[in-house]
Design a protein that fits this description.
heterodimer; A: mainly alpha; 11 helices; B: alpha+beta; binds adenosine-5'-diphosphate; binds magnesium ion
């Protein structure tokens, strides 16, 4: 048996490693003085009142994009996952691989490709997706949908198909069986896929960089462009606000759906 | 009129015949079991009655209606699965109410019928539990209640006890049988367990390689199997290769061993015609073989093995030419020692003849 105290030590180190940057950022946001410093010089909440309106706008943009991305990913990903699991058609294995492949491609590459596509689309149809919320959201579907597909496929592995037969034998039509049995049982997987899609969308820089801009600037892009020129306390304050918001969301979700949510399956 | 009619039904999976042209019927209130080894097509038959699998040929009637092309949810059947298939996100009561809800039975009647079904399977105290909080036996009782509460035309059970341990299995056999006869429910039951089939069924259809080899009441099937496969699938049967030697005055048939010098009488008219000189098998159950007896109805041999079975000893005897015979001896009786030379015999009325050829499948 491995030494228990060693395990605890490793765990503490891991937690410390994960928390350290967060602590630094939050501490720095309360630090007086012109440049960011750690440990904080003198305590101030000044930076919080200095957060420019553009950051609040960006938080809202990010939230709308992430929520839209999660919702669309579920709408596309759930039927796709079920088709991939249950359908009987040639090339099913290949199609599964294709559906999950965007996760393997660096987001920067996807971003450039999407940008090119939006230009072609503009040339051909006059529809401009660049610099719009819809454009960023669509871009984020390239990973949102695969995340949902992956989560639902994993959840589906434990799904007993005789449950649907039981519902059928009891008189339920295919539609009612789906609504009353299939969907509720797959819900934890769907939610965990959606949460991932939301989180990854909220986190993304490369795709939002190419597809967004202007009124469709997401928070990470806003922060990124700001810190290129100036690493001041207001950015730390924004970061701290986002950290607190995320924390609230995580606590709320684990209250509603349980901590299993974050591991994708029930243990 | 029969509740279930299986009329020359056939099912091919690609070019593999899972069920070959099979016909049988189940009378109202009757308990029929499909019994056979794994892969013999039992589940496929049951699933065709349920509507989960479409036959490639033939017709299926339920209560006189032709349901061959009807989807499962319109057939009014109750199905119990080996895996229980309880809805994990519903409580016991909600599981049982499912079929009633789908049928838009009003709330008051629904609650009354759920309560009645819970009482029937003696799980009144568990209405608010979730399936995960129940034992295997309790889960299967919920599944049974859920299936019968909709008053189906036929109750279908696919190896419902296979996942349970022996003690529970026996309890649930009794439970299912009690519920079935209380409701006078037409039932089609699938199992590979011969004991289960014998103790529960009104009639048993023995299946092999996609076809029914024999269908009869349990005692008839056990006493008079029509082929070696059935004889050895239901319990054990001693088979001695013999040749028909002649007819005896009392209508019995005289046979002699193909190997060695044994000769025996087989009483009663055989179910099939055996010509003089025809090679066939003399069949007798181990429990009908006793040690000792008269020399003219004897099997001489040496005790090769003794197997203790609690209330009985199973004595394995080997003849001079390698032919084998098994006898069951009461634990209170004199038990021979291994290696001892013994004579065994049996009542000619307790033996029968089986064709050398198995029925074509
Ligand atoms: N969906 C299917 N596709 C192909 N072959 C099948 C399918 N279902 C069953 N079979 C085959 O049909 C035969 C009978 O199966 P089944 O009815 O399940 O037998 P049993 O229930 O008696 O064990 C088996 O050989 C099985 O492999
Ligand atoms: Mg089976």
């Amino acid at each position: 048996m491995i030494n228990r105290s060693l395990l605890v030590l490793v765990l503490l180190a891991a937690i410390g490693f994960l928390l350290a940057p967060i602590i630094v950022v939050v501490a720095a946001s309360f630090s007086g003085g012109a440049v960011m410093s750690f440990p904080p010089k003198d305590f101030t909440t000044h930076w919080y009142s200095e957060i420019p309106q553009s950051f609040y706008d960006a938080i809202w943009v990010s939230f709308v994009v992430a929520a839209g991305c999660a919702a669309m990913s579920v709408l596309v990903g759930v039927p796709a996952a079920l088709a991939l699991r249950r359908g009987r058609f040639p090339g099913r294995g290949l199609l599964s691989a294709v559906c999950l492949s965007p996760l393997m491609v660096p987001a920067l590459v996807t971003g450039v490709a999407l940008f090119q596509c939006s230009l072609v689309l503009w040339d051909l149809t006059g529809i401009g997706l660049g610099g719009t919320l819809a454009g960023v959201m669509l871009g984020h579907l390239t990973f949102g949908v695969p995340f949902v597909i992956r989560a639902v496929i994993a959840g589906h592995a434990q799904f007993d198909l005789s449950l649907e037969e039981a519902a059928g034998s009891l008189g339920a039509s295919a539609l009612r069986t789906f609504a009353l049995v299939t969907l509720p049982i797959l819900r934890p997987s769907i939610v965990s896929g959606a949460v991932l899609a939301f989180a990854m969308s909220f986190d993304d820089v490369p795709i939002a960089l190419f597809m967004g801009g202007g009124s469709a600037t997401t928070l990470p892009v806003q922060i990124f462009t700001t810190v290129q020129f100036d690493l001041s306390g207001d950015v730390m304050a924004v970061a701290s606000v986002v950290i607190v918001l995320s924390l609230l969301v995580i606590v709320a979700l684990s209250r509603i759906a349980g901590t299993d949510l974050f591991f994708g399956s029930k243990q | 009129m029969s509740d279930v009619v299986f009329d020359r039904v056939e099912k091919m999976f690609g070019d593999f015949p899972a069920v070959r042209q099979t016909s049988f019927d189940v009378a109202p209130g009757e308990f029929v079991t499909l019994l056979g080894p794994s892969g013999s097509g039992k589940t496929t038959c049951l699933r065709m009655v349920a509507g989960f699998v479409a036959p490639t040929a033939g017709r299926i009637l339920l209560g006189g209606r032709d349901v061959t092309r009807m989807p499962a949810n319109r057939r009014n059947i109750g199905m119990v699965f080996q895996s229980y298939a309880l809805f994990p996100h519903y409580t016991v009561a909600e599981n049982i109410a499912f079929g009633l809800k789908v049928r838009r039975v009003g709330r008051a009647e629904r609650e009354a019928r759920v309560a009645e079904a819970l009482r029937l399977v003696r799980l009144e105290a568990f209405a608010a539990r979730y399936p995960a909080q129940l034992s295997g036996g309790q889960r299967q009782r919920v599944a049974l209640a859920r299936a019968v509460v909709i008053r189906p035309d036929v109750l279908l059970l696919d190896e419902p006890l296979a996942a349970l341990d022996l003690k529970l299995r026996e309890e649930l056999q009794v439970e299912i049988k009690r519920v079935q006869s209380e409701l006078n429910m037409t039932t089609l039951f699938v199992t590979h367990d011969q004991g289960e089939a014998l103790s529960m069924s009104d009639r048993i259809a023995v299946m092999q390689a996609g076809g029914i080899v024999q269908m009869a009441a349990p005692h008839a099937l056990y006493e008079r199997p029509n082929c070696r496969f059935v004889a050895n699938f239901l319990g054990r049967t001693n088979l001695i290769e013999v040749e028909v030697a002649g007819r005896l005055a009392d209508g019995a048939t005289a046979v002699r061993a193909v190997r060695g010098e044994g000769g025996w009488a087989v009483a009663g008219a055989p179910d099939q015609v055996f010509a003089i000189g025809e090679r066939c098998f003399l069949a007798t159950r181990p429990e009908h073989v006793r040690l000792g007896g008269s020399p003219e109805q004897a099997f001489e041999g040496v005790v090769r093995n003794l197997i203790y079975q609690g209330s009985l000893w199973q004595v394995e005897i080997e003849g001079r030419h390698g032919e084998a015979l098994s006898a069951l001896v009461g634990a209170g009786d004199a038990v021979p020692t291994r290696g001892a030379a013994v004579r065994a015999s049996w009542d000619p009325a307790r033996s029968f003849l089986l064709k050398a050829e198995e029925p074509a499948m």
